Amino acid sequence: MPKAKTIYFCQECGQESSKWMGQCPGCKQWNTFVEETISQKKGSIGERQLTQAKPVQLSAIEMKQEERFTSGFPELDRVLGGGIVPASLVLVGGDPGIGKSTLLLQICRNLSMQHVQVLYISGEESMQQLKMRAQRIGTFTDSLTVLCETNLEMIDGVLRREKPQVVIIDSIQTMYSENIASSPGSVSQVREATGAFMQLAKGLAITIFIVGHVTKEGVVAGPRVLEHMVDTVLYFEGDRHAAYRILRGVKNRFGSTNEIGVFEMREEGLAEVANPSEYMLSGKPEGASGSIVACSMEGTRPILLEVQALVCRSNFGIPRRTAAGTDTTRVNLLMAVLEKRLNLRLSECDAYVNIAGGIKMNEPALDLGIVLALVSSYKEHTIDEKTICFGEVGLSGEVRAVSMANQRIQEAYKLGFTTCILPKVSMDALNKTEKMKLVGVKNVQEAVRYIL
């Protein structure tokens, strides 16, 4: 029998240590080391295996056009870079109850309609539970098969025998290998299972989607090496009590990581939101101070957002500063710019900034919208509801240029906006349109003077 050995793993970065440590030397996190029991395996490599590996000249490598196939969701295809890549390993993370399993089951339905052989492996739900959820989503074809199993060795045998085109693993934390003594969900088991599925995906040309639970910090539970092993990492974000969901790619070997997909949770499942800007602006109040529409870019997609601000006199010696949907430090910085450059006495006021709809955006192009919303609330002045703005604000009060100004203006024009406040340095590169008034500003003084 191989001799058992005890080793300590960091749950955040996968750092190994022979003894427990309070702080991980790799990621500098505290109390992240857990004890795992591993088996020492002895193996030997024959002479024939040692001579099999040969280097290849870079110029001799032939490029092949990757053949993608659609998932049935254009929003998901956008995030993946144009569709699903065969023999890829995709990790889908998100909070419990956010809709990960529902989204993947709907993908299975779309693929089965295209006669793609799909295998859904569930380690958390029984077949009856899957059937109940499937009945709510719609009808399925016989191309979809279901397996409720958590043993990694048995799943390996099923995949090699059936050879499906797409496999769903729900979830990676429930899978275990009999060769490892630790319990399912431990660092060793999760890492071993992910490595096994990566070899199956590449060796058998199977596309595998893995569901991963997240920690309270919002990252996938288990060692961070999981994100390095897979080809694509997708995060399903949003408030479980709100209707919308955002699918964001944080790693993609086959496309951009700046794209997002927007979905709406309905009774029959998730539905795509083709126009997120119109969806985010629904319910915007009329004639209210402290509200303006700003434009942010997510990859190649412009999204219009309502920036709300509430500035009121503080009843305590230390004023409160709260931001929902954006960075609180950035709000404090912009308020300091207003107090210094416009002589506004904001140090005596509480300030609350909110990105309506619950979406989180940190792009610098929202700076001008936050500034104008703060001034509008402080002065009790209403901004024209057909006015939109974007631009980065510096510490000296200057309004700096942002990328893709043409796309932002075109999106605003499609939704009926008539005036756009933007950096003056971006005016020269614009395609002028007579139907929309463009106001170029050099600094916050000019922008505030225009709205007042």
- Alpha-carbon distance between the termini? 81 Å
Number of strands: 21
Biggest β-sheet: strands ordered side by side in the sheet: 6-5-7-8-4-9-10-11-12
Number of helices: 12
Structural class: alpha/beta
The major β-sheet equals: 9 strands, mixed
In what range is the share of β-strand residues?
25-35%
Rounded Rg: 26 Å
* Helical amount: 25-40%
Low-confidence stretches: 42-48
Global morphology:
globular
Arithmetic mean pLDDT = 86
Structure description:
It is a single chain. This protein is α/β, with parallel strands linked by helices and 452 residues long. Helices cover 27% and strands 26% of the residues. α5 packs parallel to α6, α9 crosses α10 (367-379) and α10 (367-379) crosses α12 (444-451). Residues 42-48 have low confidence and may be disordered. Strands 6-5-7-8-4-9-10-11-12 form a nine-stranded mixed β-sheet. Strands 15-16-14-13-17-20-21 form a seven-stranded mixed β-sheet.
Task: Based on the model shown, name its key terms.
single chain, 452 residues, alpha/beta, 9-stranded mixed β-sheet, 7-stranded mixed β-sheet, 12 helices, 21 strands, 26% strand, globular
Which helices and strands appear, and what pairs or packs with what?
Layout: E1 4-10, E2 16-17, E3 33-39, H1 47-50, H2 74-80, E4 89-94, H3 100-113, E5 118-122, H4 127-137, E6 144-148, H5 152-162, E7 166-170, H6 187-204, E8 207-213, H7 225-229, E9 232-237, E10 244-252, E11 260-266, E12 269-272, H8 276-280, E13 291-298, E14 301-313, E15 321-324, H9 328-341, E16 349-355, H10 367-379, E17 387-389, E18 392-393, E19 399-400, H11 405-414, E20 419-423, E21 437-441, H12 444-451
Parallel strand pairs: 4-8, 4-9, 5-6, 5-7, 7-8, 13-17, 15-16, 17-20, 20-21
Antiparallel strand pairs: 1-2, 1-3, 9-10, 10-11, 11-12, 13-14, 14-16, 18-19
Helix pairs in contact: 5-6, 9-10, 10-12
